[in-house]
Write a structure and sequence with these properties.
Blueprint lengths: L1 H18 L2 E3 L4 E4 L4 E7 L5 E6 L2 E7 L6 E2 L8 E7 L5 E7 L8 E8 L3 E10 L8 E4 L5 E6 L8 E4 L6 E2 L2 E7 L4 E6 L13 E8 L2 E8 H6 L2 E8 L2 E7 L3 H4 L2 E5 L6 E5 L3 E6 L10 E8 L3 E8 L16 E5 L6 E5 L35 H9 L3 E2 L11 H32 L7
Parallel strand pairs: 2-10, 26-28
Antiparallel strand pairs: 1-3, 3-8, 4-5, 4-9, 5-6, 7-8, 9-10, 11-12, 12-16, 13-14, 13-17, 15-16, 17-18, 19-20, 20-23, 21-24, 22-23, 24-25, 26-27
């Protein structure tokens, strides 16, 4: 029985060894970018389907009977190739050859054989350095100084350094972002570390060390300042907003409003991306005043945007002009008066805005102004009309036919007087002429 147990155990060991999937070389794999790599997957002869995967993504596939291995779309067949064969020990061998290894080949490689599926894994570490153009300094869409590089393997570490006045002060990083797709690393500088420059030579650098070599990119402070733009938006005649783009909470504190002249009352209010201005009780005399939003950074840099203060003129309603022409008959003395734009009283006279009182009897009454006497004939004809002003009110008199009638009667009166004078003159001349003697 003991001998039978040994035979069964030995047979099971042989079967299990044939079912195992292994990858050669057995030791850990580490190589530099652009080298060549070959991985060999060994499985028992019963397996008919084979795959190579990188981080669980299929790269190569081959079935027994296929002449060549199929490369996953998106992979270069000139770089990845496979071969399925038998070794002298009657084991299936599925090899993977990679020419010009890249950083994208770094990761966990898996050989899968089936059915049933069995797997073996091997971690491949590819050492690579960022491309020569990195790092790259710039300004983010949110207005932060940025330094971008490829992360490399081993990963590089970015450092911000202020080289003002030949010193090397390490600045504080705000945040960093690593992108696994393009294997990039971006560092964002905390703007609070960026003081206004003392000289135009103030410069920051972003650097990393790779292969004992320091790579860096310069970041002049004026580059950060020049990336800021100002714009004034007008809400109405009393509200103005000065905004910074890209939005920068750091530069907001350096904004200020200014204008020429005195007397304009206004107040400012801090916003997230700018500075607001509220005009208090704008007066028309300030119309056209030039408002300036100024970004003053230290003693060297200043930029501004301008807008005109527009104040609408005050709306004035003209007083209505009363055109009344009427005849008023005073109570006491029986005097008729003609008034235009005047206030008629119920007394024996008429008061106008100049303080004149006019009576149309034989004697004028002066009350603080010059008296004006109307001809009795005009009073007579005006009194004929229906437009009489009594003590209870007044009626308007038309300015058309009545005036023409008065003029006509005056001319007729003059004509009659002239005729009468002529007749009297002729009669007088005939009486004074001596009669001739009869011989």
């Amino acid at each position: 029985m003991a001998g039978l147990s040994v035979v069964i155990f030995f047979s099971a060991f042989i079967v299990s060894s044939h079912q195992a999937v292994t990858i050669k070389p057995a030791s850990s794999i580490e190589l530099d970018e652009h080298a060549d790599l070959t991985l060999i997957c060994v499985a028992n002869p019963a397996k008919t389907s084979f795959q190579w995967l990188l981080d669980d993504e299929i790269v190569l596939t081959q079935e027994v009977g296929d002449s060549t291995a199929a490369v996953r779309p998106g992979r270069d067949p000139r770089v990845y190739s496979g071969d399925l064969d038998m070794n002298p020990r009657d084991e299936k061998v599925f090899s993977l050859a990679i020419s010009d290894v890249s950083r994208h080949d770094d990761g966990r490689w898996t050989c899968r054989a089936g059915p049933p599926n069995e797997e073996a894994r091997k971690v491949v570490q590819v050492n690579w350095t960022p491309d020569p153009e990195f790092p790259i300094c710039g300004v983010s869409p949110l207005g932060q100084p940025t330094c971008r590089t490829q992360e490399g393997k081993p990963r590089v570490s970015l450092t911000w350094i202020d080289v003002t006045n030949r010193s090397r002060a390490i600045l504080r990083e705000d945040t960093s972002v690593r992108n696994s797709e393009d294997k990039t690393y971006t560092s964002f500088l905390n703007p609070e570390s960026l003081n206004p420059p003392a000289t135009i030579l103030d410069t920051l650098t972003c650097e990393f060390i790779v292969d004992r070599e320091i790579r860096s990119c310069p970041f002049p402070k004026e580059l950060y300042y020049d990336a800021m733009n100002l714009s004034i938006t007008v809400t109405d005649a009393t509200n103005y907003n000065c905004e910074i783009s890209p939005p920068s909470q750091y530069f907001v504190r350096f904004l200020e409003w200014a204008w020429d002249g005195e007397g304009l009352s206004a107040s400012s209010n801090l916003m997230e991306s700018g500075l607001g201005l509220v005009i208090e009780d704008p007066e028309y005399r300030f119309n056209g005043t030039e408002l300036r939003c100024v970004l003053r950074w230290g003693n060297l840099y200043s930029k501004e945007d301008r807008a005109l203060l527009i104040v609408e003129p005050p709306i004035t309603t003209p007083a209505p002009i009363a055109m009344t022409t009427g005849v008023s008959r005073g109570g006491g003395g029986g005097v008729d008066t003609v008034s235009t734009d005047r206030v008629s009283s119920g007394g024996s006279g008429e008061r106008n805005t100049g303080g004149e009182t006019v009576d149309h009897d034989n004697s004028p009454n002066n009350h603080g102004g010059g008296a004006t006497e109307s001809p009795p004939l005009i009073d007579a004809f005006v009194g004929v009309t229906d437009d009489l002003t009594t003590e209870g009110g007044s009626k308007e008199v038309g300015s058309g036919p009545q005036v023409l009638l008065v003029i006509f009667l005056i001319l007729l009166f003059i004509f009659i007087v002239v005729v009468l004078v002529a007749v009297v003159y002729v009669c007088c001349c005939r009486q004074d002429k001596p009669s001739s003697a009869v011989i």
